[in-house]
Amino acid sequence: MDVQTFRKIVDRTPALIGPHQASLERLYSYVGLDYQTTQQQLDTVNKALYKKVCDAFTSGHAEAWRLCRSVKADLIREHVILGTPLDPYFEVVNHLQDALRAKSDQSGDVTGDWEAAIRAARDHIEVSIWRESNHQNIYAREFAVARAGKYLKEQGYAIQLKPDFIALEEASEIALVAEIEKLVSKMGGLNIARKVFSLLSQAYDPDMQRYHIVPGISVTGGGQPHVPWGYLLQLAVKHINGTKPYLDLDAHWPRLINLVMAYAAVIDVQPYGHSAWQSFDVKGLLKFLQEQALYDSIFRFPQLRSSDVLKLCRGALSFLDDASLTPGGWSLADAFEVIGYLVDPVHDIRGPMIVAETDIRRALSHVPKDRVSTILRDVLSHPMEGPNQGFSRPIDAPTPTDSKKGADFYLKPLIRRSGGCYLLVDRSMCGWGYLEALLSALRENYDEFDNKVGLAIESFVRAELVAHGVPTTSGKYDFGGEEGECDLVAITSKTLIFMELKKKSLTRRARAGSDADLLLDLAGSLLSAQTQAGWHELRISQAGSLDLAQGQSRSHLSLDGRGIEKIGVGLSDFGSFQDRIMLKHFLEKMLNVEFNSPDPIYGARFTAMNRSLKKFRDQYSAAHRGETEVHQPFFNCWFVSVPQLLIFLDEVSGADSFRDTLWKYRHITFGTSDLYFEVSKIRSVKAAAA
């Protein structure tokens, strides 16, 4: 069903119920009800007409409901962009979709009579008092996308409109991106970055040491398109030197913002509604995951609080002798000194900061000058022409034939400037670059480097928990001939908290919205961690205890009537994918699906993923054997990063304090898919209440 076909059917299918409205008895007769044996009321007629809508389809009610949703979006787009009338078509599809909602669990291909369904819907409109008003508020996202398309069309960029699809024509997208980049270059990338962080400064949280960039979520509708700060900053650092003479920033800023906001809006990934109220089939979930990844990349940017930078670097590389010289002629101790200088609170400013090598040498006079120079030039900085030279569109990412394509800015914190100076674009935004730069510089020099980093992170997390008074244990165990290994168990009086740590991060292709890479990255981190923790939960629930062995150390872990919480811990942030609502959707859908790809590059990896999915399903079946209904099976599951765990630990001073802190954030969500913001918001609300 497409919008043109839908309009034609509506046009030739008028309501026929009008002449029968003179009496309730005639209405009953028209809809096929027995007037003598039923309670006579108009609502019964309304329900009978909705039943006629559903009965018009013999299968595929869920797909019919989805098609109605698609037609709604297409009607809005054509109404705004082409000027076509919205009603009566929008009202008809509204009543159709509302009727089909009752059977939206009936899957399969659509089989039935659309004309009969539309006639019943038109009849329902005639006798029903229900009318949906304020379309622009309820369908804020659809109208925002359509208005962006109209604006771009008026600017001379051709728009494609297809069933359930809107996008720029390829040639127009190339031309639009070229104009945006030209504006950024002519205004100067550094000037753009200064302007952006000046505007974002009001969203900066000094306690979290980060900017809270969140969508305007509403359960009642409404909202406005946001500025794609992440995309704009990626272009700014690409054109950091700009093209002189520069254009007047204030004079040309509105044009740049209008174009970049319209472009981002037409890509259509900004959420306007709360994810808690959404439901998905597997295809819908995959689309949602892609949208979340692109939203994070276009509208937000990775951040790390400066006070955790050096702590993470030391923790991840604790297996190395920091005094030994690397092949590059510098030591980790030297690098830590330089990084410590750059993240020192004395440099706590918003936005771009120029640091001179001479100032760093002077402050670190105990570090050989040549080592400081090498670390700054060869380890921590991008070349003078700037990063992201292979990046233009949000979906640009490395390929097997072009490894330099896509954004690489976040891999290093600094950009080299002339005169022995270096640019730090922003303390928070560049935080992850320090660790990434060190890992990249050292990886090729050590065997099994990434495995050793993973083990070092486990030790780091364990030490952080112990430092906050949380007792832990870990180790291997035997369960009926099957071996398991607990990375970390935090022991509290009411709950055993199983934590499985994964170094796997989101790749640049996943962040650019590649569905295959996104699924594989989530499987290698989130799903893998939850599956491992799930086996521990199942086995200790069955046996009552586990005997753990770690080297020469032995410990007996007893359940003793306590609850179980399962936390997957990744080294780096996964953005929106660490939202507990998203985690619930993802894990529930993984119970009934397998994946494959026609691309041979992914074949073997998807085969391995499907084996993991089978283990996940086997575990779930064993855990809930004999249960007729399972309510919220994954409510005790979390997926956080090490920096997010450190944020939690700010409040912790003991085992039960750790549990209480988790429980503070366990039952509340604001729908922003930003754990940092939600923690900050809940803290401020509770502080105000106290």
Quick one: biggest sheet?
5 strands, mixed
DSSP summary: helix tally:
26
Shape: globular
Secondary structural class: alpha+beta
Low-confidence stretches: none
The Rg value, from CA coordinates, equals 29 Å
Proportion of helical residues: 40-55%
Q: Beta-strand level of the residues, as a percent range?
A: 5-15%
Which sequence of strands runs across the widest sheet?
A: 11-12-13-16-17
Structure write-up:
51% of the residues lie in helices and 12% in strands. By secondary structure, it is of the alpha+beta class. Strands 11-12-13-16-17 form a five-stranded mixed sheet, with helices on both faces. The chain has a four-stranded mixed sheet with strand order 7-10-9-8. A hairpin with a 2-residue loop joins strand 3 (159-162) and strand 4.
Write the layout of secondary structure elements.
Layout: H1 3-12, H2 24-31, H3 42-55, E1 57-59, H4 61-82, H5 89-100, E2 111-112, H6 114-127, H7 135-138, H8 140-154, E3 159-162, E4 165-168, H9 170-187, H10 189-200, E5 204-205, E6 210-211, H11 229-238, H12 249-267, H13 282-299, H14 306-316, H15 332-342, E7 353-356, H16 357-363, H17 369-379, E8 381-382, E9 414-416, E10 421-424, H18 431-442, H19 449-467, E11 472-479, E12 482-491, E13 495-502, H20 508-511, H21 515-543, E14 545-550, E15 553-558, E16 563-570, H22 580-589, H23 600-623, E17 637-641, H24 642-649, H25 655-666, H26 675-689
Parallel strand pairs: 8-9, 13-16, 16-17
Antiparallel strand pairs: 1-2, 3-4, 5-6, 7-10, 9-10, 11-12, 12-13, 14-15
Helix pairs in contact: 2-3, 3-5, 3-6, 4-5, 4-8, 5-6, 8-12, 9-12, 10-11, 11-13, 14-18, 21-23
